[in-house]
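Notes from the 1:1 (GR / supervisor)

We went over the backlog. Supervisor wanted to see one worked example end to end before approving the batch request, so GR pasted a single chain during the call. The sequence is below; no edits were made to it. Supervisor asked that the structure be written out right there so they could see what the output format looks like.
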Amino acid sequence: MIKVSIIGGSGYAGGEVARLLLAHPHAELAQVTSEAHVGEYLYNVHPNLRGRTKIQFTTPEQLQPCDVLFLALPHGEAQKRIEQFAALAPRLVDLSADFRLRNLHAYQKWYGAAHRAPSWLGKFVYGLPELHRDAIRNAQYISGVGCNATASILALLPLVRANLLDPSREIIVDIKVGSSEGGNAPSLASHHPERSGAVRTFAAVGHRHTGEVEQELGLTNVYLSITSIEMVRGVLATAHCFLKPETAEKDLWRAYRATYRAESFVRIVKDKTGIHRYPDPKILAGSNYADVGFQVDEATGRAVALCAIDNLMKGAAGSAVQAMNVMCGFDERAGLEFPGLHPI
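Structure output shown during the call:
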């Protein structure tokens, strides 16, 4: 049994990490910090945890050494105190974007500021086990994943690995997201009369997660557009791309099966009948699964690759705990086997 703590546990992602760790067979949740809620019970902020724990929020200064420390701070904060955090635990999992990009210039390009701890960028492994399982197994420091990047990467990964994409054509990824992607801080955009019923594009070009997709897939011709819709949890990435000549649907079947056959949390969803013929984020709420699918127009060489996830799970806390499992030598599925609900 390992001792695990969370810095910044009052946000949505931190709350999900706490929920998962409280039910984890090999982890004891020791402490959770929140500067705004010191002394309050976790369930005062995360009411779904009522009856599951009597842990109270502490300050970061009250944190005791532990085996694994999760950092669930706003972007830009972990890099300011990374030396301090690393002194508290031999293994760190950072859910923010601070250590996702390995290239210093790429970080400055996508986040518009100089990195405060550039010497640490090369120490972190990108925390998507489907890509970096072996590296995570031997790592001390794991970076979180961007939810939109995760969905985009998992949709396109089989096509990249099988070398099926036409490199001369652009890849456009249209991404629909739920309101929880904006975090728990209220704003005009999250005000109910403004948010309810909205289909609102908020990043037509230049979304920061593009940098992760480029880095992890080795692409330079991928472009993301993000639209918020009437949904609390979930991401649906719809990637429009073109295939090399003579590529048939059977080639995509072969590529997707080869890539995901042994993956515990990636499922191929491609049926000819019914209402769930393609991935749907609604049925993934609370689960760590990623559902992928595709459709091919062989006459034009156009393909549509899809991936649905829960942004707070496979796009954040779920992948983080999955990476912890790999890093610590546990069953990769430990604490993550909830399949979602239907209907919901």
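Supervisor's comment: The chain has a mean pLDDT of 97.
Batch request approved.
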